[in-house]
Amino acid sequence: MTRKRFENSSCAVARALSEVGDWWSLRIVLQAMYGTRRYVDFQRELGIARNILGDRLERLVTDGVLRKVDVGEHGCRYEYRLTDKGRDLFVVVEALRQWGERWTAGGDQPGPVVRDRVSSRPVAPLRV
Amino acid sequence: MTRKRFENSSCAVARALSEVGDWWSLRIVLQAMYGTRRYVDFQRELGIARNILGDRLERLVTDGVLRKVDVGEHGCRYEYRLTDKGRDLFVVVEALRQWGERWTAGGDQPGPVVRDRVSSRPVAPLRV
DNA sequence: GAAATCTGGTTTCAATATGCAACCAAACTT
DNA sequence: AAGTTTGGTTGCATATTGAAACCAGATTTC
Questions:
Q1: CA-based nearest residue in chain B for residue A103
Q2: Quick one: which of A82, A116, A117, B32 is 20 to 30 A from A94 by CA?
Q3: pLDDT tens column, A76-109
């Protein structure tokens, strides 16, 4: 049976999850925030299967989270760049990072510290 | 092939997603935040298949996001309650809600406003 | 200028996950 | 005593995933 979808739910969380709630999408977005833009680089750095990557990139593009930019002169090089909508997912990713940092058994190494680009101070914990 | 897992990734986001990054877990957590605690209620309100629900609840319990409380006198009634770890996911859920509210085509109705329990003011947008 | 390589995919196949409905057993209600 | 509620489990059909092979155009290397 087809996986259930929630695009039209009245719940904003459900709608958000129906765009980026699957196993790979947020990781692709995170990788994009790290600066990755090319198909092959996503593939290599995430270790995702190529067909799945193609499918996810396509969906993220149709959902307006990424846009596919034709770079290179004769139409054979493309880049997937975050849109404003995609960049806005940073809060979500950062919330996940803080939660993971706090509650999941980290690997041995502490992981990179996310810093403000201007002040270069580590970002403050998110609060509600 | 088995779905890829990231429990031991050095990336906190990947570790977080390996606990709550699947299609249903965050929705179950959200529902729990709304007050749902019983198997049947989760099932009815989410419309999730019962076997999947059982599997997810079990995993969330082993991961320490929920705990299963034996309520009722002769061990036939249970409740699944959020732990501190689970409650801490509120920031993630709220970030998703704000993103969904802003970027996804809502249903017609505006959806509930999340308010501070003490001040009863709507919560401020999350920022980093 | 031919061969190899890089890029961005698509196809095929096996294994796994999901959804649905039916079934089950212990407790509780009527 | 019979039926209902709760919390599942099982079996089956379909979807999704992952791995690897394949492919074609552009670019680089020899």
A1: B85
A2: B32
A3: 789 999 999 999 999 999 999 999 999 998 655 5
